[in-house]
Amino acid sequence: MGRHAAxxxxxxxxxxxxxxxxxxxxxxxxxxxxxxxxxxxxxxASARLQAIVRAELLERLQDLPLTPQAVLDLGAGTGxxxxxxxxxxxxxxxxxxxxxxGMLHEARRRSRPFRRFERLCADARQLPLxxxxxxxxxxxxxxxxxxxxxxxxxxxxxxxxPGGLLLLSSFGPDTLAELxxxxxxxxxxxxxxxxxxxxxxxxxxxRSGFSRPVLDVDRHVLEYDTVLDLMRELQGIGARNASERxxxxxxxxxxxxxxxxxxxxxxxxxxxxxTFEVIHAVAWAARxxxxxxxxRAGGDVHIPVGSIRRREER
Length: 314
Known about the structure:
This protein has helices spanning 29-38, 43-46, 48-60, 80-88, 101-107, 149-159, 177-184, 198-207, 227-236, 253-264, 293-296; strands at 70-74, 93-98, 118-121, 134-140, 160-171, 210-224, 272-285, 309-313. The chain is of the alpha/beta class. It has one domain: Vaccinia Virus protein VP39 (Rossmann fold). α6 (149-159) packs across α8 and α7 (177-184) packs across α10. It is globular, with a radius of gyration of 19 Å.
């Protein structure tokens, strides 16, 4: 596995994501990478939801009998997940992979001599790893930044060994619904990304060569004093608007004020809510005899009844 190589990247573009079916939706990959690269130092202080979801995802591993030799933390950010994966699987080779050098620079501090993990800078759509070389892929709130979800899932399937496990979380379409609606009343530009729903994710898992996918959905409601506090937190994790259809230049004060006024109508008990819909999925890399069979037969994605829950984080 290669080591992280430093790179100079200049500043990028406030938030946006879409379902693969939206052919007109495209992300500016360079702007996206710049935004996450510059957010490395501020990420952990702003990523409270990411920390909550990461802990939930790691907890799911307790019920899975795994002894992986190679583990990939895909979209590893500052290495919090990779550190925990190395603690859980001390004999495994753990690789923290991220597209942003700034994130991997921060991750270096969490790789210790007796809990060392490797760092690799690469794009999820083109993983520089051998076919069938990984036993577990762990990816927390990263895949929503891939507007080419099928390509990313096919790459994950390629590097997973037959019978290997994919454990993922991703944002669903109700994420930031309040912010999206507030901006819609201010102008016609795209300010908030469109995210794939749980059925799209399940279908794409089957089409990419995964079997027995089990998916469920959580809704977290975070609260803020002002909508600007929400936007600062999003910027702190690098979640800037990287849509190719974003408004050119800076947003005018009038439009920003119109958005804030619209959002104020949602205030309750002195606070403003922001909804984050989180999709969780567990899927196994189909063995050769099963590859494509589920997709050809129409597939079977298991979404437990009553799995859609709402959590309020204060």
